[in-house]
Sequence to fold (372 residues):
Amino acid sequence: MSNVILFGMNSFFSTDFFESNRRKLQELAGGKPIVIKGNDIVMRNGDSNFPFRQDSNFWYLTGLDVPGLTLVMDNGKTTVILPELSASEKAFNGDYAIESYQKISGIDRFVEANAPKNTRNTRVDKLLRDMRTLKQPQEIKAITESIRITSETLPHIAEHVLPAAKYEYVIEAGLTFGFRSQAANGHAFTPIVGAGKHATTLHYNANNGPIADDDLVVLDVGAEVENYAADITRTVSKQPISGRKADVFKAVETVQQEIIGLMKPGVSFRELELSTAKLISAELTKLGLDGNNVRKYYPHSVTHFMGLDVHDVGDYNQPLKPGMVITCEPGIYIPEEGIGVRIEDDVLITTDGNEVLSKVCPTRLTPLQSGQ
Fold:
């Protein structure tokens, strides 16, 4: 229990961040009592647990990566309730580090007691959703660091690991090393390493298939720094590509560049989706496919919010606003030909347009780029 992440020289978050978030939430809630339950440990098998990941709302308000906690805000007082630990739990997992928790969260009152059972509050969830949608400077710095690590790892994988890799899991292992050696949290989500026909399955993550020399390989991955995610997709290959595969890649690249150009304050998510469908339709027709059946070859959305969760909370009915961080990820998937291409970048909406935070990662990675 005492293995909470402590603030160090590289931390992007001070105690003020969490205190400010709590104050704002209490103001928005009109002073009504608020109870937020953190995540519990989930057993994997036997006496082994899955890696712990804190509930994003709870972390946003406390900064505490400790399982089983409950935050109570009532009548101007803030308390964290700790589940009582047995002597055996303390021996195996360690005791609570209250002073460290106080330093991180700015909360003085910690008690061991039974927490309230019914903590779900849809109104509070909505308030937190709206707060988390617009990123604060500290959050953008953490996301940018996650993107930096991901953007440095992907070119290395494409150039030095992929050429000799016989199976997808070799790529996954290389990604894990690249992320874990630089970011305390490692992967922000289960990586997608899909070669050949596997590249046409959107959330394929078995990552155990073979990689042929002429396969296109979709790498949809992201490092996580201080619980904030990157989400970048690059389509790579062992050798230069030409012909049909190069045409599909170019089509997706063209669509992405067009859509990124549309991402600015005031534009609706619906406008982005309609524009993407129109552009994909035109590219499908050029490829000799049915341009009237866009969903067959492009069955997902072009964007989503990102932040504490890789698919972060947010209201898709509102227009784009400065401070939002979203993705741009068009794709074309042709299962019958074993061709799948997706290109994804992370975009910060600014007052006068956008900034592509992941532009440091080339769209065309060696050796794929040399054949186009």
Q: What stands out?
A: The longest helix spans residues 137-161. The chain is about 35% helix and 20% strand.
